[in-house]
Every structure is written in C-alpha cells, then in structure tokens.
Design goal:
Shape: globular
Order of helices and strands: EEEHEEEE
Structural class: mainly beta
Radius of gyration: 18 Å
Helix content: under 10%
Strand order of the largest sheet: 3-4-5-6-7
Number of helices: 1
C-alpha cells in the first residue's frame, strides 16, 4: 500500500491505494532468496529476500547443489514447487533475531508445509506438517 494525498481546495484527502507497480511476491523462481531456503536478512524486514516468493526447482537443480537448505525429506528425484514466506517475529540490528521460514509445497505433495525457526544463534531442523 502507498499513501497518496490529494488536495481538494483547502481540505486534504488522504487515501490508501494499493501499490500496483510492485508484485506481492519477490520472484517466481527462487532467485530472490538465492536458491537457499534459509537465506534471510536478520537485520531488516524490508529486503527482497525476506519477501514471499514462488519457486520451481527441477531434480537436476536439487541434486547438483544449486538449491540449498531445502526442507528435510524433499524428494530430489522430482520437481519441487511451492511458495516460501519469511515471518520476522523479532528483527534486531545486532542479528539477534527470531525468524520463521515457511514453505508451502504445491508439488509433489500439495499442501504440505515445512517450517524452520531462527532463534538468535542458529536454525532449527525443518519441521513438516502434512495437510493432505
């Protein structure tokens, strides 16, 4: 959302208008998070790699190591398609942050969710929830 102000004589009207120039997601191929599922910025909420992103990786990308830190149990013999979100619970300039990364899988298991949590010093193991 962006703030747009209009002047109507001496009275000003301020309306919130959706920002139609910026898509609601950062990338469609995982490039915004550098093909590393745990690549986040610990000091700022408003950076591109912390924005929601679609991804579509083929098995060659998974096997070759082009894609890293993907959820445990991902079948590297199949494409891996989904949506990645970053939820900064607490962001600190000194990097002592709390952040959740959520991956919603579209393929091969529709609706399966994976979570990893950064708690000031390191990442938890991936946790998987099967919503099928």
């Amino acid at each position: 959302m962006s703030l747009n102000a209009k002047s109507n004589g001496t009275q000003k009207e301020i309306r919130l208008m959706p920002d139609i120039t910026t898509p609601p997601f950062a990338s469609e191929d995982g490039s915004s998070f550098y093909y590393d599922f745990l690549s986040v910025d610990l000091t700022s909420r408003e950076v591109i790699k912390n924005r929601p992103s679609y991804f579509n990786f083929d098995s060659d990308q998974l096997k070759s190591g082009t894609v890293t830190n993907y959820p445990t149990g991902t079948d590297v013999n199949q494409p891996f398609i989904g949506y990645r979100e970053v939820f900064p619970a607490h962001v600190s300039l000194d990097g002592r942050s709390h952040i959740v990364v959520k991956v919603t899988e579209f393929y091969p298991v529709l609706g399966r969710e994976h979570y990893a949590f950064f708690n000031t010093t390191g990442w938890s193991a991936w946790k998987t929830v099967n919503n099928t």
